[in-house]
Design a protein that fits this description.
- Belongs to the amino acid/polyamine transporter 2 family.
- With about 400 residues, this protein is mostly helical.
- The protein is about 70% helix and about 0% strand.
- It contains 12 helices and no strands.
- Helix 1 crosses helix 10 (about 300-330) and helix 2 packs across helix 3.
- The protein is globular, with a radius of gyration of 21 Å.
Amino acid sequence: MKEAGFPLGILLLFVVALITDYSIILLIKGGNLSSTKTYQELVKKTYGLVGYLILSILQFLYPFIAMISYNIITGDTLTKVFQRIPGVGVDNVLTDRHFIILLTTIIFTLPISLYRDIAKLGKVSLLSLVLTTVILVVVMVRAVTFSPQVPKSENAWIFAKPNAVQAIGVMSFAFICHHNSFLIYGSLEEPTLKNWSQVTHMSVALALIISVAFAASGYMTFTGYTEGDIFENYCRDDNLATFGRFCYGVTVILTFPLECFVTREVIANVFFHGNLSTVFHVVVTVVIIAVATGVSLVYDCLGIVLELNGVLSATPLVFIIPSACYLRLSKERWNHSDNLISCLILVLGVLVMAVGFVMTVLHPQECSHGKEMFYCSPSNVSLHNSTLPP
């Protein structure tokens, strides 16, 4: 919303959701047409070794960078939660983001990521969804109770802003699930295109509702001061926000293993013909998580991570590759609706990827990680308001 403008941002959310829904189903249609059971097999059969390697790199990078962003979120949110515990001062080890990231990795994300069957994470995913709903309620309540305390930025309600393409990258990051679609499709009791379409429609619709509610509530509260991690916007002494941070941190910890599954599968397919022995399964998992954790320990600006991952990894996986594969495999006439829509999505994806990357490099998001926002102090709000033009 901040990058695109509020009205255009809402419109773009719906557009990206529709494209996501369509391309997920298109991906499985392509798998059925080519008799393949993984995203990588589909691209290899359609575009040969070069296409396979490009996809493998993208399919690895997206969840891997997502893991880095999840660690950044964990470090940001849980440190502020522990600061609210009586007796825990700013010098306490529990307020150190590096310690928290290492602690949650060793105790939670690494052990859960060592599972071999993605279906075993079903209950974990359900808990994550429940917590997401709780977080949404917190953000909506604070939109009503905290919004009056936050001054509105200049041009807060303008229809469109120049950085709209960067917003599409972030939205693509939020909606993408193509990299693990075949894994989930194969876990269905009856993996048919009809069942898959129903699951996809319900999942994307729910994701859209939650995303619109989150984005609207968050932006209406903070307008142009909105951070890449929205819980950076709330004051540290806000107990409801602290509860939301706790739920947010737990949700991210529970989502982390899903991305690890995909990165590990990509490595298994490229280097081990799809099969990992027990020893290599453990070694590969530990190495992936260790590298992701190491990067997240030295870099902590979430907004840029989301934008770059969106335009460079998510956009090709959502817009470009499913459409390109289907167009290559389709036996329908060129003017068939699926072919025409696939062409449109393909062209749009190329534009978003190219323009979004240039815009992100030229106009990177500012990062005020760990700072208390000015409106948390009434005296600062008064001073800020007095400096604004009439």
